[in-house]
């Protein structure tokens, strides 16, 4: 599967952004989908994950209550709604697909998008 993320940009603290990740192929619903991010000088970290049908989601503690992951299997797209953004949310955000199973571990994800930059100004 090929993944294409978009929707990043520059936003002031407290603002919102919605990231989208479009997947190619006809088996999108068979993948667990996740979002990860990497800030300058830091390792890539887990942000959110969603099951095949969207019934279960999990979030990093740092984004709980502010971010929401969702998916539309008919459109082969996964979303990340980001509200109440903080400067520490500044990072390149990556969507990823796992055919291994439900996990928050990046090494369980087989396919990665190219990343989209999110910059939050104070």
Structure description:
The structure is a single chain. This protein has strands at 3-6, 9-12, 17-23, 32-38, 45-50, 57-59, 67-72, 77-82, 91-98, 111-112, 116-121. The chain is an all-beta fold and 122 residues long. The strands form 2 sheets. Strands 2, 4, 5, 6, 9, 10 and 11 form a 7-stranded mixed sheet that branches. The chain has a 4-stranded antiparallel sheet with strand order 1-3-8-7, with no helix packed on it. A hairpin with a 6-residue loop joins strand 4 (32-38) and strand 5 (45-50). The model has no long low-confidence stretch (mean pLDDT 96).
Roughly how many Å is the radius of gyration? 13 Å
The biggest sheet, with number of strands, parallel, antiparallel or mixed sense and barrel status, is: 7 strands, mixed
Task: Give the ordered list of helices and strands.
Answer: EEEEEEEEEEE
| Poorly predicted residue ranges | none
- Mean pLDDT value: 96
What is the total tally of β strands? 11
Give the helix/strand layout.
Layout: E1 3-6, E2 9-12, E3 17-23, E4 32-38, E5 45-50, E6 57-59, E7 67-72, E8 77-82, E9 91-98, E10 111-112, E11 116-121
Parallel strand pairs: 2-11
Antiparallel strand pairs: 1-3, 3-8, 4-5, 4-9, 5-6, 7-8, 9-10, 9-11
Give a quick set of tags describing it.
122 residues, seven-stranded mixed sheet
